[in-house]
Amino acid sequence: MSDQIDYILHLGDNALILGHRNSEWTGHGPILEQDIALSNIALDLIGQARYYYQYASERINACGHAPRLVPGHEGMPVTEDVLAYLRDAWDFRNCLLVEQGNGHWGKTVLRQFFFSAYQFELYGALRHSRDSQLAAIAAKSLKEVTYHLRWSGEWVIRLGDGTGESHIRMEEAMDDLWKYTGELFSPADYEKAVALPGIAVDLATIRPAWEVKVDDVLKTAGLERKEGEWMQKGGKQGKHTESLGYLLAEMQFLQRAYPGCEW
Amino acid sequence: MDKQYTMQDKASWPLWEIFIRSKQGLDHKHVGSLHAADAAMAIENARDVYTRRMEGISIWVVESHHIHASNPDEAASFYDPANDKVYRHPTFYDLPDELKHM
Question: Which of A120, A220, B4, B102 sits most deeply, having the most CB atoms within 10 A of its CB?
């Protein structure tokens, strides 16, 4: 049971953290139309996170397997807001990729592309999960992700195959981000445990499709994979890069400083 | 923001006029304009800017410089002569009751 809750939280944390990162662009996009486009994606992802957290809360409150909350909040009933605002970095199970800083526009769209290509395959498979709730969330979210993938892929091509300057920026972004893509397909113990009974997706089965999609776009964009590069991991187990701490400090500030505050 | 990260020539993104069909059977209506690098991006931008609240099922984009407009200074000679031509309106027919929406 606790493995399944960990898995649901992992799915929710991925969506929330990337949604929050994207929301940092709101009001700062390079052009109004793209500001709106990325803000829409941010809202889609935060919406997905809410579904996962609502479902996780339901299961947590039913079985009493409470996640660790920040001091002063132990033992309180778990809600979607509690899961988002009252856990510390080491209890988040998102991949390292989604917490990385926005950098420039090229890095943001490349991060989105790697992750959307992953989420596209993941949700496609998760629709057949034996957990009907997860299957329903995946089916609904897949339409959103299909557009995220199209939008981010076109940007990667546009910039990779754009001007000399934009190409260099995309190569920088590849240097920054490629090392975090391995973790997407490196299952945590809880993923393995719930993949066996057909609840979670067996990541090995979706990797080939991800590679085809990514290779296709990178090739068109004139960018090269970093073959043989050491892959960073640990986010799924709560071992994060320093980026997550700064993100949470901003995202959680209000609820941590003024518990239960509403507006 | 770092100077080198700003877009160097924002003016190079042309303006596009956006037309949205709100539902099957209705015509595309002009809803506004936006900037985009090319037609594919204009359609995606229009999707994100103008159809966020279920406003449409089909999008047309036309680069603004392809639109040729009548000259407002010529409004008098263009439109006023139609003022007194009531016979151009098909209002002299008796329609059967069964005919709706005419």
Answer: A120
